[in-house]
Amino acid sequence: MKLLLVEDDQPLGDALRTVLSANGCMVTWVRTGEDAQRFIRSEDFDLLLFDIVLPNLSGLALLTWTRTLRCESPIMMLTARDSVVDRVLGLDGGADDYLPKPFAMEELLSRCRVLLRRNGDQRAAVWRIGRLQITTASRQVTVSDIAVALSPREFDLLVRLAMSPGTVMTRAQLSRGSNAEDSLEGNAVDVHVHTLRRKLRGNNITTVRGVGYLLEVYSCRRAFRLSGA
Description:
alpha/beta
């Protein structure tokens, strides 16, 4: 696994690099957002870890910049800021997970495995739902043939809705992943649905008050599904 760590604290950065490297990661560690931008422009990473409080370019600004490149690698924010507002800003900006400091190294490693598993396990298919098209193999989404950049968590939530188009799915159903570690917490489902609806320009996702959400059917068909999917 190739990983980019952006952390300006020398002792913490060194400890994180040591632990991650010992667990099979090829770690590139930088201490500023500007250095991170140079690596993100020139290399592909399986996972990105961003501290929020960085000199000059903040982690949130770096997150926004990274997603404008249509980078689909999962991004985890590491920060001492643990308010609901900060969490929403991170998730709404395209982060896939948010780990407040201080944290146990075992939890960090577990969350990294979840993000990588989620990003790699998607089955190959192309689904068309009205003007919406989802290509699961490449994790690409278009609306009226215009590409829409989604974070891995946003994409996974959209796919869960697309698996049962026209069927109401409760928040509890949408929050559950393949295991407990993969589940969303609190109002994270509502935050992601709000972002999805904005990015899809209001297409398809309908709120069923007091129950959950559904993906409108319109003219829905799955164009193909590869063997073993």
